[in-house]
Amino acid sequence: MFDCDIAKTPPKGGDMQKFNPRFEDYDLVVLDYNGDRWSKATDEAFLQYVQAGGGVVIYHAADNAFADWEEFNRIIALGGWEGRNEKSGPYYYLRDGKVVIDNSAGAGGSHGSQREYPMNCRNPKHPITKGLPDGWIHSQDEMYDRMRGPANIKDLLYTGYADPTKGGSGREEPLVFTVDYGKARIFHIMLGHCGPSLENNPAMQCAGFQTLLLRGAEWAATGKVKQPVPADFPTAKKPSFRKDYKAAK
């Protein structure tokens, strides 16, 4: 479905002037980046791409990046770590099924212990979620919580309960959503922590995670989703891995 190129920055501390992708050549940019600051020219090229209506996927720790870049924080809607606090924007979570915009003081970004957890659908009619279960079990992963920022979420798709007995916030946290940012189609997925090896990587090998990433990418690129729901999608009772995944013993 996708023809992909991978653009890598120089190593940490390297010359970031050498990182200058031609964003405008693509229908979609998937950000899996949390490293050194881009150059001014690359910042401007990315903003031009997004503001012209480009498709963007924010994947997991990419929402940790660039805490001091105001426009980037509007592109991701919510972020964590890297010094984020109440000056970065409010917390955003659900209470009794209703959105809470919480301006209280505190750091942005945390997570409890890695674990399996239920995913709760909040918009079953969106093209990304249409046909997916209202509830399903995601495989062992981090659950980001206490994220904060401009909170310009457009479509909240899935949330999860950050269990305080596991180090979580005790809140129903936003985990998958689209962002309200001009003409751009932006899909933000907080799932998918990378394991230490291919054999110990349950979060990324979860059929639910992979399905959401692919459907979100298609929607961000085209505005539509034509992919069928795979037969191996997780259920409300247990997670599901891709058939070729062999977990570490």
What would you say this structure looks like, in words?
The protein is an alpha+beta fold and 249 residues long. It has a single domain, classed as Rossmann fold (3-Layer(aba) Sandwich), CATH 3.40.50.880. 16% of the residues lie in helices and 24% in strands. The protein contains four helices and eleven strands; from the N terminus they run E-H-E-H-E-E-E-E-E-E-E-E-E-H-H. A seven-stranded mixed beta sheet has the order 1-2-11-10-9-6-7, sandwiched between helices. Strands 3-4 form a two-stranded antiparallel ribbon. Helix 1 links the parallel strand 1 and strand 2. The mean pLDDT is 96.
Secondary structure elements and their pairing?
Layout: E1 28-31, H1 40-51, E2 55-59, H2 70-76, E3 91-95, E4 98-102, E5 110-111, E6 115-121, E7 135-141, E8 144-145, E9 153-161, E10 172-179, E11 185-189, H3 202-205, H4 207-222
Parallel strand pairs: 1-2, 2-11
Antiparallel strand pairs: 3-4, 5-8, 6-7, 6-9, 9-10, 10-11
Listing every helix as H and every strand as E from the N terminus to the C terminus, the arrangement reads: EHEHEEEEEEEEEHH
Helix content, binned percent? 10-25%
| Alpha-carbon distance between the two ends | 33 Å
Q: Strand arrangement, largest sheet?
A: 1-2-11-10-9-6-7
Let me know the number of strands.
11
Q: Based on CA inertia axes, which overall geometry fits? A: globular
Mean pLDDT: 96
Summarize the structure.
The protein is α+β, with helices and mostly antiparallel strands and about 250 residues long. It has one domain (about 20-220): Rossmann fold, CATH 3.40.50.880. The protein has 4 helices and 11 strands; from the N terminus they run βαβαβββββββββαα.
